[in-house]
Design goal:
- InterPro entries: AB_hydrolase_1, AB_hydrolase_fold, AB_hydrolase_sf.
- This is Alpha/beta hydrolase.
- It holds the Pfam family Abhydrolase_1.
- It comes from Pedobacter rhodius.
- It is a single chain.
- By secondary structure, the chain is of the alpha/beta class.
- The protein has helices at residues 36-42, 65-78, 91-102, 133-141, 152-162, 165-180, 207-216, 232-235, 237-252; strands at 6-8, 11-16, 21-25, 47-51, 84-89, 107-113, 194-199, 220-225.
- Strands 1-2-4-3-5-6-7-8 form an eight-stranded mixed β-sheet, with helices on both faces.
- α1 (36-42) crosses α9, α2 (65-78) crosses α3 and α4 (133-141) packs across α5 (152-162).
- The termini are far apart.
Length: 254
C-alpha cells in the first residue's frame, strides 16, 4: 500500500486529503489496503482517515466490539476529528454501530457494507484448519462472489494470520464477541442517515441481513451490488464508490 502508517500516542492509522472527515473501519481479517480504492476516489475532496483497530493489541480479557468502540472514541477525540462519517465493513461496521449508539453526536452519517451486528456466517460456519493452505484459500474465496478476488497475496496474509497462535485466539475471541452482541433492539436509536451498500451474493452477512438493517434503522437507504460478496469496496469499487459519492453529496453537501 502506498500510504504510510502513522504511529503516535498508541494509535496507528493512515490519513489523506482535507475537508469533511471520512473514517474507514476495516473488518476482522481486513487490511488497510481493502480501502485503497475508496481513499483514492475521495481524498481530493475529503479528509480520509483509516485507523488500525487494535484487535491484536488490546488485553484479551477485555477484547470485544465494545472495547473497539471505546478505542475509536479515544482516537476521534485524540485527532480532534469532530463530527465524522463512519464507513465500516464487516466487524468495522459493527464497531461503527456500537460507537454511533453511544456517541451519535460525533457521527454525521454512517455507511455499512457487509456489517455484522445482526447475523454473520464467518468462515462459512467453521473456523479453518490452520495448517491447510488450500482450506484457507477456499474460505477466503468464500468471502467473494468472484473467487479471483482472493488474490494469492490476500490468501497468504490470512494464512499467516491464522497460523499465529496468539492472533488466532484473539480472532476467535473477537468473532464470539461480535456474534453475542446482537444490536437488533438498539438500532432504532440511530436517527442519523445510514447507507447500506450490500453485495447481493454475500454469504457471510446474506441479503436478508441487509433487509433487516434497512427495516430497523429509521433513516436508512439500501443499495445492492450485483455479483458481489462480502466486501463490495474490494470486489466492485467503482459501484461502491458511486453509491458512496451519491450518499455523501446528499447528506454533507445540502
Amino acid at each position: 500500500m502506498k500510504y504510510q502508517v502513522i504511529e503516535e500516542e498508541g494509535f496507528k492509522y493512515i490519513e489523506a486529503g482535507k475537508g469533511e472527515t471520512l473514517v474507514l473501519l476495516h473488518g476482522l481479517m481486513g487490511e488497510l489496503s481493502n480501502w485503497e480504492p475508496v481513499i483514492e476516489q475521495f481524498k481530493d475532496r475529503y479528509r480520509v482517515v483509516v485507523p488500525i483497530l487494535p484487535i491484536y493489541e488490546l488485553p484479551i480479557l477485555t477484547l470485544g466490539v465494545k472495547a473497539l468502540s471505546r478505542y475509536l472514541h479515544r482516537f476521534i477525540k485524540y485527532k480532534n476529528l469532530g463530527q465524522v462519517v463512519l464507513i465500516g465493513n464487516s466487524l468495522g461496521g459493527h464497531v461503527g454501530l456500537v460507537f454511533t449508539v453511544a456517541h451519535q453526536e460525533f457521527v454525521k452519517a454512517l455507511v455499512l457494507t457487509g456489517s455484522s451486528g445482526l447475523y454473520e456466517n464467518a468462515f462459512g460456519g467453521s473456523f479453518p484448519r490452520r495448517e491447510s493452505y488450500d482450506y484457507i484459500k477456499e474460505k477466503v474465496e468464500f468471502t467473494f462472489y468472484d473467487p479471483a478476488t482472493a488474490t494469492p497475496e490476500l490468501v497468504q496474509e490470512v494464512f499467516k494470520t491464522v497460523n499465529d497462535r496468539s492472533r488466532v485466539i484473539r480472532i476467535l475471541t473477537m468473532a464470539k464477541s461480535a456474534i453475542r452482541h446482537n444490536m437488533g433492539k438498539e438500532l432504532s436509536k440511530i436517527t442519523i442517515p445510514v447507507s447500506l451498500i450490500w453485495g447481493k451474493n454475500d454469504k457471510v452477512t446474506p441479503p436478508e441481513v441487509a433487509e433487516e438493517f434497512y427495516q430497523l434503522l429509521p433513516n436508512s437507504e439500501l443499495n445492492w451490488v450485483d455479483k458481489c460478496g462480502h466486501a463490495p469496496m474490494m470486489e466492485h469499487p467503482e459501484i461502491f464508490n458511486a453509491y458512496l459519492e451519491k450518499f455523501l453529496d446528499r447528506v454533507l453537501l445540502k
